Amino acid sequence: MRIAIVTVAGYVHGIGGMQAHTADLARGLAERGHEVEVITARHPRGLEVAEYEGNRWHFVPVPTRYERLPMRHRAWLRASAKKFEQLHAARPFDVVHSESTSALGLLRRGVHRRVATAVKFHGNYLGLVAAALGRARRGDGAQRIAEAKHIVWVTGGHFIPPGGVYRFRACEAMVASRQQLRGTRWSFVLDPARMHVVPNGIDIRRFQPRPQAAARSKLGLDGGAIVLCVGRLAGPKGFDHAIAALRDLAAARLVIVGEGHDRGALETLAAGLGVSDRVLFAGAHPPDVVATYMAAADLFLFPTEYEEPAPVVLPEAMACGLPVIAADIGGIAEVIDRPGENGILVPPGAVDPLVGAAASLLADAAARRRMGEAARRRVEEAYTMELMVERTLAIYEIARRRLMGAQ
Question: Is the pTM of this model over 0.85?
């Protein structure tokens, strides 16, 4: 099968769940013998084409969003569709796969009426608004104003350009968790008969338990308890709560892997709380290095306040045999489906429960080991890359049969 994946989040575009998901999906499809070409945003070094993990990636040298407007850039809509048509004319594709709304330009040209089209949603408008309202209720006046502005921004991005909301109704639609079905359906006016749950999968060969001492030596980390956070340092990802929790975890150090425009504010927060000497901002790293940090850690924190459909970094940590503490928001409870056994859930935005759970686990090595082993089993049964690829291919076949039936 010849497959086109259209995404604004390519493997070179920083840390993020969509980036990791797209790269893993493309590689998994190639390993199953399928031919994949990815159309993505401009390369930071100006490359137009690159071979990566068995697939060809095409970098479209145009902006994907306006700087001061919350909407997909018209240049991306035109250029991504043009690149697809060029590749399709040379050798026709069997399937188009859109990562969230990246392929909107193709749908506006009616590509879905000629080529089977599927879309994988990584969040939805109603969920994002609900999460913002929740943060506003928990915050002060300044927080409420910030969240109100965020809701205006999200609303503009969702409804502009006109038609973007309903055009994906013509596709087979995938969501990463059952929790996302209702919100995604109503956000994009989707046909419930064409909606499918396909959990995100991760590479359990890359992310697996490894000797802690060797990982720490490789990273230059000395002894003592290490608490780990991974992700983009931007938005309501809860890194501030992890830093605040460190005040009451006197024997632990916090390692934060990732980059983003909030790094300066987080460094200032750590200094203000007097814990700078126990917080390491490790920067952004490729997946293999992230896996090494996970092997070196004793505990993984994911205290996000963002609407997380099915975060990729969470099962990555669980696959490494790490005990995890995560906020109970979005689809996280579907990953940690047995709280207390394969992970711990805490209310989003609440520091005290985070401290209590972390202190309890850090004081009990046997409990950490049991929870880490259960976490690994959970990923093996439901969140492997192989399962994700198999389920995605099944949706592609549904899309192809539906298109042939309509012609």
Answer: yes
